[in-house]
Amino acid sequence: MKHIGWIISLLLAMPIMGGLGCAAPGLGVKDGRLSPCPGSPNCVSSQDTGKSHHIDPITYTCSAADARKALDLVLESMPACKIVSDSDSYIHATFKSRFFRFTDDVEFYFPKESGLIHVRSASRTGYSDLGVNRKRIEKIRKLFAGRVRTP
């Protein structure tokens, strides 16, 4: 019976712990690259070459300005999304899980005149994300493709 009390306490504390995480260090673009994924399987990046972490960048054939507008609209339509920073070539957004309130950092980098949007999505805490970050980027890709011309 003692253990049940500890388990209940832990379950009640998890949403608080997940919601208090500070921004992960090293976010942003440095020398044209997003930060590499850590060794844990809770991150995907279009600039990572590792098989478990790599995901294709989002592509487009419209103007960069139209692509930015489309991505902004996609992110605004996603209920768990909050835009943290937004510049001409970079967007940092966070997504919070509904139940435990864990925070994931999602980044988008627009290299000039490339027709690409590099992406990185990573959990701030934990080891495995059960594929949540990969699924999120694929959902964003699909919603984005519905708004713009993609190759």
What is the CATH-assigned architecture?
2-Layer Sandwich
Total of helices: 3
At the first level of CATH, what is the class? Alpha Beta
Broad shape: globular
Instruction: Give the overall average pLDDT.
Output: 86
How much of the sequence is in beta strands?
15-25%
Low-confidence stretches: 3-21
Proportion of residues in helical segments: 25-40%
What does this structure look like?
With 151 residues, this protein is α+β, with helices and mostly antiparallel strands. It has one domain (2-21, 28-145): TATA-Binding Protein. It has 3 helices and 8 strands, in the order H-E-E-E-E-H-E-E-E-E-H. A hairpin with a 3-residue loop joins strand 5 and strand 6. The N and C termini lie far apart (59 Å). The model is unreliable at 3-21 (pLDDT under 50).
Question: How are the secondary structure elements laid out?
Answer:
Layout: H1 2-19, E1 29-30, E2 33-34, E3 43-45, E4 58-59, H2 64-77, E5 81-86, E6 90-96, E7 103-109, E8 116-123, H3 132-145
Antiparallel strand pairs: 1-2, 3-8, 4-8, 5-6, 6-7, 7-8
What is this entry, summarized?
By secondary structure, the protein is of the alpha+beta class. The protein contains three helices and eight strands.
What brief labels describe this structure?
TATA-Binding Protein; disordered N terminus; 3 helices; 30% helix; 25% strand; two-stranded antiparallel ribbon; single chain; 151 residues; globular; alpha+beta; six-stranded antiparallel β-sheet
